[in-house]
Amino acid sequence: MMPHASSPRWTDLFIKRPVVAVVVCLSLLLVGIRSAIDLPVISFPVIESSSVAIVTAYPGASAETVQGFVTEPIERAASSVPGLDYVESVTTAGTSTVTLWLQLNQDTTEVISTLSTRLSQIRFELPEGTEDPSIQISRADTPYASFYLALRIPPERTYAGVSDLIQRDILPRLAAIPDVERVENYGLEQSMRIWLNPWKMAALDVSTAEVADTLRRNNVIGTFGRTESTSQRVNLKTNSEAKTPADFANMLIQKEGDVDIRLGDVAEIEIGTTELNNVDRYNQDQVVFVGIYPEPGTSEIVVGDALYKAVDEINESLPADLDLFIPLIIPATCAKRLAEIFSTLGETILLVGLVVLALMGSAQRARATANDPYFYSRCDSGDITDRLLHEPADHPRRSCFGRLGGRVMPSWCGERRRNLRKACRERGGTRLFSSATFPHHCHDHDAGGGVCADRIPVWSLGVLFREFALPWPSQWSYRALSHHLSPIMSAWVCPDKGHETRMTRWVNDRFERIAKGMATWSIFRCVGDGSWSQGTVFYHYLWSRSTCSL
Questions:
Q1: At 172, is the secondary structure helix, strand, or coil?
Q2: Taking the CB of residue 14, how many other CB atoms lie within 10 A of it?
Q3: N- or C-end of the chain: fewer Cβ atoms within 10 A?
Q4: Burial letters for 331-353: b for 16+ Cβ neighbours within 10 Å, e otherwise?
Q5: CA 214 → CA 113, 128, 239, 252, distances in Å?
Q6: What is the pLDDT of residues 322-334, one digit of tens each?
Q7: Whole-number Cα distances in Å, 436 to 7, 169, 485
C-alpha cells in the first residue's frame, strides 16, 4: 500500500506551480479589499422586525368618542392581519393611533396589502368628518433616527417661523442625500389662528356655523374648463385657497344689501402653530430638531459623511442669525468601534512581528512574520467577500465575532511554520519536499476546534442564527484553502535541510536551557509533593516545545 504522503492530491498544483498559489492568494486579497469597500456598515444586526401605525384624525371629537367610534373598529379590522404579534392603541382628543407589532421576519408588504383591504371594508363604519386612516411603517430594531440635526431659534424669530423655514428650505435638501429614507421635522406645523370675538358676532348676527362654512367654502380649488383660439389654448381654474391672514380676513360671511360682513370683522387672524405641548432645548438654547432615517441596509457611516457636507452647504445659504448643527450622531459610536477593532488588529500584527524579530533574531523570521499577516489577510478577505454575497450589511458585533473566529490565526501560522521547520530537520529534505509533504503530516485544522466548540452557544440565538452561526463554514473553508496555499510560501523562509542561522541556533540553545531548567525544577518540586506524574508530563511538554519551536 502506498504511503499516504505519496498519494496525488489536487493541492499538489500549488506546490509544483508556486505562481498559481501566489496568483490565487493575490486574487483573494484584492477581492476582499474591494468587498470591504462595498460592504455597508450599520450599528446593529439587520432583523426584519417592523411595526405598523394607523393614525386617524377626527377633529373636534373627545377621546371617549374617538375610542368608541374610531379606535375600536380599526382594532377589530387589524386583529385579522397575518403575522401579527399584538396590537396597542393610544387615543387622544381628535386622534386615534393603533400600532400593530409584527412577528420577526414577517413580510411587511403582505401585511400592508391585507391591512389596506381591511380598512377599506370598515370605512363606512367610521363617523362622518373622520379623515382617511394613514399607515406608517417603522423598523422595530431601529425605531429612532440615526442622525439628529438642530437649528437654534434666535430671540427675534418665532418657533413657527423657524419650523416653516426648515420645512420649506432645509428638508428637501436633506431628503436628497443618497441612501436617506426620510427626514422628519420635529418642529410644529404652521397654522392660521382665528380668534373669534363673541361680542362682534352677536352684534352682527353671525354664528360659528357660518364661520366654519365660510372657511370650508373658500378653501377649494376648482376647474372651469378651458378656452382656446386659433393660436393658443388656456386652461381656466379658480384658486380660492387662502394662505395669508389678509386672505382669511377678506372671506365673505354674509351679504345684506350693500353691507358685506367678512371674517376680519368678527375675528382676529394671525399666523401661529399647532398646539405647543413641549419645547426642545439644547445647552439651554431653544432649538428645533430634525431626524434623519437612513434606508435599511445602507452604510450609516457613508450617509454621515454626506450629511456633513450637506450641513455645510445649507449653513452657507441660511441667514446670518441661523446655524444648523449636528448635536447627536448615533453611528459615530459604530465608527469608533470599527476603528478600535482594526487598530487592535494592526497593533497585534505589529507586536507579534516585533516580538518574533527581537526574540528569534533572524531576517528570515522577519519575512516569515510578514507571511502571517498575509495568511490572515487572505482568510479575512474571503470572509468579507462572503459577507458581501450573503449578508445585507456589516456591523461591529459581526466584525468582533469574525475576529473571534480568527483569534487562533497567529498561533496557527506560528505552529505551521514550526512544524515545517521540524519537517526540514527530521526528514532532511529541501524546501520543496517539506512543503509538498507538509499538508499530509500536519493537522493544523484541529486548532480551530476549540474555537468552534466554545462558540456553539452563540449558534442558538434564534433570528441571529444566520447572522453569527452560518458564516463559520465559509470562514473555515477560506482558512483551509489558505492552509494549502501557505506551505510553499513558508518553505522559502526555512533553511534547507534544517540549517538555521547563527542567531537562530543561539536562541534555540538558550531556550532549550531554560526549558530544561524549568522542567528539572518542576520535577524536584513535584517529587516533594508526591505528584511525579505531573512533573513528567510538564517536562515532556517543555521538551517537545523546545525541539520544534524554531
A1: helix
A2: 25
A3: N
A4: bbebbebbeeeeeebeebbeebb
A5: 39, 19, 15, 7
A6: 888 888 776 666 6
A7: 11, 69, 11
Classify residue 80 by burial, with Cβ atoms within 10 Å: 0-12, 13-18, 19+: exposed
Q: Which three cell numbers stand for residue 296?
A: 435599511
DSSP 182-197: EEEE-SPPEEEEEEE-
Q: How far apart are CA 482 and CA 177, in angstroms?
A: 41
**Domain 191-273 part of CATH 3.40.50.980:** no
Looking from the CA of 318 toward its CB, the CA atoms found within 13 Å total 23
Residue 452, pLDDT score: 45
Q: What is the pLDDT of residues 59-81, one digit of tens each?
A: 888 888 888 899 999 998 888 88
Tens of pLDDT, residues 341-385: 778 877 877 776 676 666 555 545 444 444 444 444 444 544 545
Residue 489: is its pLDDT beyond 60? no
Count of residues in the chain: 550
Determine contact, residues 472/53, Cβ cutoff 8 Å.
no
List the helix and strand counts (H, then E) for the chain. 23, 15
Is residue 447 within 8 A of residue 412, CB to CB? The reply is yes
d(CA 346, CA 353): 11
The pLDDT, as a whole number, for residue 4 is 47
The larger pLDDT score, comparing residue 197 to residue 516, is at: 197
Q: What is the CATH number of domain 48-140?
A: 3.30.70.1430
For residue 226, the surrounding DSSP H or E stretch is: strand 221-228
Look-up of cell digits 530544561: 516
How large is the average pLDDT for residues 203-229?
Answer: 79
Name 197's Cβ contacts closer than 8 Å, sequence gap at least 6. Answer: 266, 267, 268
DSSP state of 241: -
**Cα–Cα distance list, 360 to 119, 345, 353, 365, 374 (Å):** 76, 22, 10, 7, 20
By the 10 Å C-beta count (0-12 exposed, 13-18 middle, 19+ buried), 241 is classed as exposed
Write out the three cell numbers for 118: 381591511
Options 3.40.50.720, 1.20.1640.10, 3.10.20.310, 3.30.360.10; CATH of 4-43+334-499: 1.20.1640.10
For the record, the C-alpha cell of 431 comes out as: 524546501
Provide the residue ranges of all domains of the chain, joining segments of one domain with +.
Answer: 4-43+334-499, 48-140, 191-273
d(CA 503, CA 500): 8
Fill in the DSSP letter of residue 29: H
Residue 460, judged by CB atoms within 10 A of its CB (0-12, 13-18, 19+), counts as exposed
Q: Return the closest-CA partner of residue 345 out of 385, 372, 305.
A: 372
